[in-house]
Amino acid sequence: MRMRLTGIVVGLAVAVAACGGSTSDDGTGDSGATGTTSVDVTIAAGGDPTPGGRVVMGLEAENSGFDATNDRWAISGVMQALTIYDPLSAYDANGEIQPYLAQAFEPSPDFRTWTIVLRPGIRFTNGEALDAKAVADFLSAIAASTLTGGALKNMASAEPDPADPLKVIVRMKAPWAQFPTVLVGQAGMVPAPEQLAAAKAGDKEKASRQPIGTGPFVLEEWIPDNRFVATRNPDYWRTDERGNRLPYLDAVEFRPIIEVDARVAALKAGDITMMHTSSQRAIRQLREEAAQGRIQIVEDRGENEETFIMLNTSVPPFDNVLARRAVAHATDTGPYFAVTQGDPALATDSAFGKDSPYYFDSDFPTYDPERAAELVRQYEAETGRPLAFELGTTPVTENEQIVTLFAEQYKAVGMDVTVKTTEQGQFIVDAATGQYQANLWRQFGSPDPDGDYVWWNKDNATGPLTLNFARFANDELTAALDTARASDDPEVRKEAYATVQRIWADQVPYVWLNTTTWMIGAANDIRNIGNVTLPDGQPSLPFQAGSFRLTQTWIER
Fold first, then answer.
1. Alpha helices in 85-164, H assignment, sequence order
2. Looking at residue 38, what is its pLDDT?
3. Low-confidence residues of the chain, pLDDT below 70?
4. Gap between the Cα atoms of 446 and 401, Å rounded
5. To pair with 285 at 20 to 30 A between CA atoms, which of 74, 292, 455, 517?
6. What dotted CATH number matches 306-515?
7. Residue 228: beta bridge partners?
8. If DSSP codes are grouped into helix, strand and coil, which group holds residue 510?
């Protein structure tokens, strides 16, 4: 499965892609961010939004809990969390960061101090006020956490402004021009002081299983691996453009359906009314259903994650660059796209999509089995041992097919490869603790690349628990990341990220496969699929790597 952070979202890895061509209602194509042609199939609303009803959504995985300071949130966890919490920031339709739960972000000229200005009059669903102390305490707890601390390692302090209870003063150790990007997800979803106190006291039951936020819904019931049900928050602070209080739905229910074919079958049967997937095979099925008028489909066209083979550079054999380069040259993505039914146009050689302003053609190693075999022999001659390793994934049928395919490719050039399948929760833990050699992985994809800083810098690459899962500690790469982080000049940032991609191509901590895209399938009576607006009324980025808010979704009757 996968690992992913949105702000600070640690998740599970799944490896499949989405793309392809289709015809829209009006016969035109829509070129998405992936560079492929794909068209949404939706039904226009017949009138104003009508309140009431329940959406039942199939998710790719279950969440470990809802304590943002201690639990691991995947995309599925973010979906659930966005019903209970609001993020401090969010992306607009152009991929630019904007305040959400916050009212404004005010940096100093040198980007070493940021003031977070909160919206007045907002309360948590237990009645506690959203104020500067609640936010400052939460950010401090994120920074102090063994799990999430890497996201805010550059933060020196977060304190309430003594002169204003709605202002938080955040001081940095070094300039951070893109600080609000880290607050779009787990590190920006503020819990009530009551919940945070439970987390600090070690009360996992209350902190993790009884979330309290400012969000559009309130938790009613959570039975892990079965269902998560949240009901409408009657005092929610947001309204629509007509002044109607949001959300429209009475309730949302999430069901983890790990096997993607079962998820599609549940939508077709009407057992669920929405689902998400990044499986190309499933997306083809959804397109067929939509072409017959049986469902609606909407694709996430924003900057998305990449699927790749992640190599643990801290342990043999991948502490040796010869082994890493050998795997890169032995990887043939042609059969991979056949297994996943993916579009070869989605093949990538970077963490940046090819239409990203930050993409750089780094001459990443390409498929060359003769060169791969030569590197295997060179590795064995230098080390005196065979190039042997375990290639890991999770117990999802398509993932197992993929790693089996690559294992055969690697064996063909002289590597000794064993396939290892691990339950997804343990799979994450093993990656974070370095207990793996090579994994099929899906990650990155922040609209602003500073959102992925935590995964790449050297300070998060060592220790018993790391967020730089490849454990790739490179001084030059980290210096480039710091240069990009300190500047708001687009050209400075582009050159810095070009340096990052040059180093990846030379040192190969990741073997890139494809850009991942997501599709949402929905019953024909669902309206407003995806994020619609930000609190100030401007259009929002519809999705972020397959996750979205259900705040403005409604059911037409």
1. 132-144
2. 60
3. 1-38
4. 28
5. 74
6. 3.10.105.10
7. 222, 254
8. strand
